Structures are given as C-alpha cells and as structure tokens.
Amino acid sequence: MSASGGTKAIVAALGANLAIAASKFVAFAFSGSSSMLAEGVHSLADSGNQFLLLVGGKKAQREATPQHPFGYGRERYIYAFLVSIVLFSIGGMFAIYEGYEKIRHPHELEHWYWPVGVLVFAIIAEGFSFRTAIKESNALRGKLSWKEFVRRAKAPELPVVLLEDFGALIGLVLALGGVGLSLLTGEGVWDGIGTLCIGILLVLIALVLAVETKSLLLGEAAGIEEVKKIEAALVDGDTVTRVIHMRTLHLGPEELLVAAKIAVRHDDTAAEIATAIDAAEARIRAAVPIARVIYLEPDIYSEVEAAKGPDPSATPGGPNPHAAGH
C-alpha cells in the first residue's frame, strides 16, 4: 500500500512541479522577479527530486544477489537522502544567494501581473499535489500525528513529498508576499527578502529530511506494534515458551529482518524444536507479512542468566572490548 500510494503522490507532485517550473521561468523572464527565479529553480529541483524517488523505487525492486543477499530495498532510503542534498544545495542555497543579491541590488518589478498570476496558478497546482499526498498518507498513518508519521514512516516517499509540498506552498506565500510588498512600496528589496526567506525555509526542510533519512539508512527497528505482534506470534506456550531477546531491522520499507533467541523445553527433541521453529516463522509472517527474513535460535531459558541483564558486548554496535587505550 505504501509503495503504490507513494508512487501516486510522487507522480502527482512531478506533474504539478514541471508545469509550475515552466510558468515561473516565463514570469521571471517578463518581470525580472528574483522570487520567481528562486521559485522556478525550487520547482525544477523538486521535479528532479521526484524523479530520483521514482528511480529509487525502481532500483529497490531488483532481486537479491549473492553480493547483496538481502536485496536492494534500502535504495529507496539512499535516493531519499539524495533528495535532501538536492533540496539543500540547488533549492535552498541558490534561493539564499539570489535573495542576498536582490537585497544588495534591488530593482523595480516589471509586468507585475506575470508573477502574481503564476503564483496563484502555482498555489492551486501545489495544493492539488499536497492534497494527494495527504490522502495517500492518511491511509497509512492511522492515529499518528503528522509529526509522528514523518518521523516513524519506514517508506520515505510520502514524508518527502509531504514536506516538499508543504515547503512549496509556504514558499509560494512568501514569494507572493515579497512581490506584493514590492508593488505596494515600490521597493524591490522586499522581493529579495521574500526570496531569502524561501531559501531559509528550504534549507530547514532539507535538514529535517536529511536527519530522518539518515536514521533509515543506519537501520531502524520495527515499530512498537509490529514488535508486539512478532513477540506474540513467536510464543506458542508449548514448545516455544518465551522470547529471550529479539532484534528487528528494516531491510527496506516493506522488508523486515527478525532475529530472536527463543526458549524451548530442555527435553524437546531436535525434530520437535525444528518443527516448532517452522511453525513460529509461519505465525510471524501471518502476523507481520513484511517479516521476510527470520532467524530463530533455540535456547534453554535461565533465570540466573536473565537476572544479569543483557550483555552490551554481544549486541551489534556495542562496546568494543579491544578499544581501550585507542
């Protein structure tokens, strides 16, 4: 669902941004508005970003290989991170530079009706794109707030499109304000101030995207609800008596790795344990379909060992016992 919904939102945003970018460049050519130039570059960068997301989604569908045995699901995270870089460099920094130059060397707007007309058209088009992204996101976010959805979503496309469209709408309002104040006061510096504000806004959005996609690239665990479902599915009360410890990791938005040490009875035969593990894997996949890769290790539960607590040195990323003195 998240993949198809994300693609629909991306395509809607791509079509809107290409049309808006063309109209903004035409308005800049006739009016000389730096806000229009910055917004045109912003829309062009957004179009490139949506293309990157589509490419990432396509590459992520490749089959696993011996060199990449867990597949290419994280390609979507990589391309989402590239989007944040493009938004920061091409969108944000260019707008900041253009706004600074316009404040230093302001000039009167010509043919003001061009930028005003284009901005009104762009707000309508971006509103349609934003509405599509909201509709597709509502099908996935459940009871989460929008902030929680952006932070917890494992599929990067919808949060990226949401933030881009939100930033674009705010940027358009800022551009309209800059153009309007320039017309009312006759001072072109307001157009530059509006452009500068657009640049700062884009940089902030790019930083938020970079932080969130970095977390996905590093590897995030399953959500709280999914972890509870997996733990409940593991224990059958007969052969598998409890979960000693468990680790989960998203190999991609729709692919989850589950590794767990499970407690079995000390007098169970190897055949009984093997059958119980196969049954536990089936229950996990039924409860959480995205759990594609499952590794279960049987063990005998010991209250004495459990009382000692988890061993940090046995955890991936835990303290390195050989790091002392370095």
Describe the structure.
This protein is mostly helical and 326 residues long. Helix 9 links the parallel strand 2 and strand 3. The chain is elongated, with a radius of gyration of 26 Å. The model has no long low-confidence stretch (mean pLDDT 83).
Summarize the structure.
The protein contains ten helices and three strands; from the N terminus they run ααααααααββαβα. With 326 residues, it is mainly α. Helix 2 (34-59) runs antiparallel to helix 6 (157-185) and helix 4 (113-141) packs antiparallel against helix 6.
What Rg is obtained from the alpha carbons, in whole angstroms? 26 Å
Shape annotation: elongated
Helical content class:
55-70%
The major β-sheet equals: 3 strands, mixed
In terms of DSSP E residues, the strand content is 5-15%
Oligomer: single chain
Low-pLDDT parts are none
The SS-based structural class is mainly alpha
Compressed to H and E, one letter per element, the order equals: HHHHHHHHEEHEH
As laid out across the biggest beta sheet, the strand order is 1-2-3
